[in-house]
């Protein structure tokens, strides 16, 4: 038993532990978008399906001796692939630079090819382990139940998922994780070798099983042995229920990731909740009761609707809790009804195979079908509505004996389910009457809204990415090119540009500036530029580029500005690295404003990224980081980078007023005198010169970074209250003689 237990536990731990690591490797090359994880999940689900199909075919068609030698041969090939990759690239899992995207055409398919080349075979081998080794155990020891092995597999999966964001990601670098995973794979191979030896010794002459039902827990084997083969209708029901749960899982992950940050912390939580519902529903039929779960589903849908209405103003903890509750109840309803429709034991392997097909179908729908059909995230409310429909269908199954009171209560719950399902479209149709343009692609949902049409002075078109406004432009001709939003003269970017002009004038240099902007939005920042300036925007989303260039006639700042404008499409960091190799002009001001909705692409805020930016700065240049965020405190991260690079730092905050949206900018410069300018002491901006006292608590690097480290309660003046931060008012430069 011990050898089987260790093999199955290790395989489940490695299977789920490698998923967030693979996502972290892929994330920086695709703009840090949440769609990276859903694309990875599609790959994992597809390979898991292939693994289940392999296990079913091998266990049902081959004799024990053939099974053992075939599987051991596959293990040797997979181990050899890991060794070869480690020898050629220096890492058993890291993709080489050859997989960097040269364009953004079909990113989902390219990402899946990369995953297949880097870890496809080892992941496939791991995915076969659960059903196959439980089948071996049932053959070798028919007198013992394999239930404990099923439980160990679930325990290993959950431990890997919950341990990664809290125990691994913040403390262990990606390279060390990859080597540790490879060492675990070697241990797994040795355990399977021991299991194969036990199978050959104890069941050498056994014939193939008709199915791999022996690999399943006793709780799954309580249906009559003699039963008719499931028909097409029943099979389609399995497929529909598993697809619905899979769509809800991926849609919930998308929703959470787009508003905070794409990363393991918000990847593994929904997957862990989904796995828990599968464990509970398939352990014992009594753990799923239609009445309490239908009531819980109604309540959770109401909470999700409230969270959507509140938007980013609602605390992150409440958002995660409300969405997790909806995912738990919805997936529990689907998996509970799925388990109640399980077939006889002899057909259970086919049943699990169709459940896996449903998981892949959900991934295909979210990654490929939904972006082509919808211009917003319709799959989230549709999946919740489908769960309500499943719960309603279950409630409508009248018990054999039912009192009038019980029947009334059942119908009332069914009516409430229908009511909340009909209101779910409100999750995506909010502000629909004001939407003038909407588009969706791999990088998210972009909408253009027409606001304040009854107020000529405030009448405007605004760009929204997810729940966050990324700039606007007034419609009246005399107000059309006014600086607004986060890019007013009092903002951190505005002060940096003004001070650079003043300094160049004092030095007798031309006042024209060379400006780099990571992130385009609607091009609002171009309103701060003057004749003689030139600006280069870096933007990964082609839809945003088209809108800023005038598509639809909504925005015209890029064409109206007197500055020379260039737009570089693609991930900003990859583009800057390419330009550094080719040689390019240094920037007087390099600004970073790259949030997607309210999420941050972490790879653009690491130590290596800041070092790249500094290589692009002119000697007296300034790096401006837009760090406004509803959930993350990015001041300590910015100051840690400043200290590591020997930079002076100032935090510029502006409150909402008139054309200005409240914003926080961190300005970094190798010249401490830069922050002595008189322009830094007037206007509506609050300017504080900051520095770290002592060593930083953490530093984000390409190898090691965690959003959890920045999840702190937001409060005005937090930086000044931090005992590790020295806060001093800006000092005016003495008047020149």
Automatic annotation (TrEMBL):
Keywords: Membrane, Polyamine biosynthesis, Transmembrane, Transmembrane helix. InterPro entries: MFS_trans_sf, SAM-dependent_MTases_sf. The chain crosses the membrane at residues 36-57, 69-88, 108-126, 147-166, 178-196, 265-283, 320-339, 351-374, 380-399, 411-430. Gene3D superfamilies: MFS general substrate transporter like domains (1.20.1250.20), Vaccinia Virus protein VP39 (3.40.50.150). This is Fused MFS/spermidine synthase. The keyword Nucleus does not apply. It comes from the Bacteria. It comes from Corallococcus exercitus. One of its GO terms (biological process) is polyamine biosynthetic process.
């Amino acid at each position: 038993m011990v050898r089987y237990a260790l093999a199955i536990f290790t395989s489940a731990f490695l299977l789920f532990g490698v998923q967030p690591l693979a996502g972290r490797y892929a994330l920086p090359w695709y703009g840090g978008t949440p769609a990276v994880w859903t694309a990875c999940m599609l790959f994992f689900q597809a390979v898991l399906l292939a693994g289940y199909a392999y296990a079913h075919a091998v266990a049902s068609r081959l004799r024990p001796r053939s099974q053992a030698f075939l599987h051991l041969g596959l293990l040797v090939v997979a181990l050899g692939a890991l060794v070869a990759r480690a020898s050629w690239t220096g890492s058993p899992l890291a993709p080489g630079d050859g997989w960097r995207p040269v364009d953004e055409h079909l990113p989902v398919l390219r990402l899946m090819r990369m995953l297949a080349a880097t870890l496809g075979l080892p992941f496939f081998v791991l995915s076969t382990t659960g059903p196959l080794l439980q089948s071996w155990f049932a053959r070798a020891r028919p007198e013992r139940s394999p239930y404990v092995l099923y439980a160990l597999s679930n325990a290993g999966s959950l431990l890997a998922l919950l341990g990664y964001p809290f125990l691994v990601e913040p403390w262990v670098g990606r390279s060390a994780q990859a080597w540790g995973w490879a060492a675990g794979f070697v241990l797994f191979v040795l355990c399977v070798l021991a299991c194969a030896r036990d199978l050959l010794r104890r069941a050498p002459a056994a014939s193939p099983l008709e199915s791999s039902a022996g690999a399943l827990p006793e709780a799954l084997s309580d249906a009559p042995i003699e039963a008719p083969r499931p028909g097409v209708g029943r099979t389609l029901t399995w497929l529909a229920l598993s697809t619905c749960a899979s769509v809800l899982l991926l849609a919930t992950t998308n929703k959470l990731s787009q508003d905070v940050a794409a990363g393991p912390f918000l990847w593994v939580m929904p997957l862990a909740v989904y796995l828990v519902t599968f464990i509970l529903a398939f352990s014992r039929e009594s753990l799923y009761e239609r009445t309490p779960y239908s009531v819980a589903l109604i309540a959770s849908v109401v909470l999700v609707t409230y969270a959507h209405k509140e938007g980013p103003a609602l605390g992150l903890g409440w958002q995660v809790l409300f969405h997790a509750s909806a995912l738990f109840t919805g997936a529990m309803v689907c998996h509970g009804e799925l388990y109640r429709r399980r077939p006889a034991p002899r057909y259970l392997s086919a049943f699990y195979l169709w459940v896996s097909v449903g998981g892949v179908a959900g991934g295909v729908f979210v990654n490929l079908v939904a972006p082509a059909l919808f211009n917003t995230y319709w799959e989230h409310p549709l999946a919740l509505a489908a769960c309500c429909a499943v719960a309603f269908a279950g409630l409508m199954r009248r018990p054999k004996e039912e009192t009038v009171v019980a029947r009334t209560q059942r119908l009332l719950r069914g009516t409430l389910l229908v009511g909340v399902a009909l209101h779910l479209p409100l999750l995506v149709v909010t502000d629909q009457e004001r939407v003038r343009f909407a588009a969706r692609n791999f990088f998210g949902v972009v909408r253009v809204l027409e606001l304040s049409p009854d107020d000529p002075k405030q009448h405007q078109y605004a760009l929204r990415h997810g729940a966050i406004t990324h700039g606007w432009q007034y419609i009246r001709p005399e107000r059309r090119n006014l600086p607004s939003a986060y890019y007013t003269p009092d903002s951190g970017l505005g002060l940096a540009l003004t001070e650079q002009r003043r300094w160049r004038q004092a030095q007798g240099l031309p006042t024209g500036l060379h400006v780099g902007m990571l992130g385009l939005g609607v091009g609002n920042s171009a309103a701060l530029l003057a004749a003689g300036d030139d600006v280069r925007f870096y933007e990964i989303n082609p839809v945003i580029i088209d809108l800023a260039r005038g598509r639809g006639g909504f925005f015209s700042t890029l064409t109206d500005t007197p500055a020379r404008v260039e737009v570089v499409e693609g991930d900003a960091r990859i583009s800057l690295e390419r330009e550094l190799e080719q040689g390019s002009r240094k920037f007087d001001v390099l600004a970073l404003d790259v949030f997607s909705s309210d999420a941050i692409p972490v790879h653009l805020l690491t130590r290596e990224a800041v070092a790249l930016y500094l290589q692009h700065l002119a000697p007296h240049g300034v790096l401006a980081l837009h760090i406004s965020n509803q959930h993350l405190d990015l001041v300590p991260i910015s100051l840690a980078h400043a200290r590591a690079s020997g930079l002076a730092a100032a935090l510029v905050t502006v409150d909402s007023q008139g054309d200005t949206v409240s914003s926080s900018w961190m300005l970094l410069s190798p010249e401490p005198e830069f922050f002595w300018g008189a322009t830094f002491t007037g206007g509506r901006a609050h300017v504080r010169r900051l520095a770290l006292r002592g060593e930083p608590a953490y530093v984000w690097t390409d190898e090691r970074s965690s959003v959890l480290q920045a999840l702190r309660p937001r409060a005005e003046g937090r930086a000044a209250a931090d005992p590790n931060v020295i806060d001093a008012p800006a000092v005016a430069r003495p008047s020149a003689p």
